[in-house]
Amino acid sequence: MNNTDKAKADVARRMLKGKIPVEEVAAMTGLDMELLKKMEQEVAPEVQEAKILQNLDNTDLNIGDILFDNYSTDEKADENY
Q1: pTM confidence score
Q2: Staple 71 to which of 35, 41, 62, 77, CB 3.0 to 4.6 Å?
Q3: Taking a C-beta distance cutoff of 8 angstroms, is the pair 8, 29 a contact?
């Protein structure tokens, strides 16, 4: 498998993880449907896990409050805290 085929396979996996139908992935990448069906089965557990986690927030996960620092590179903004 050359670098172009590896790149196509990588793109196809990412597309399948993004829930793009196999037919569209085949049309866009030019890869064989059998190969794409195998890939789809390989990424299915990750897609299922993402579906489960997509609507959760910090209260659902019971991890408490989350502080977001928008000024991570600005030390003067952090001096007062």
Answers
A1: 0.58
A2: 77
A3: yes
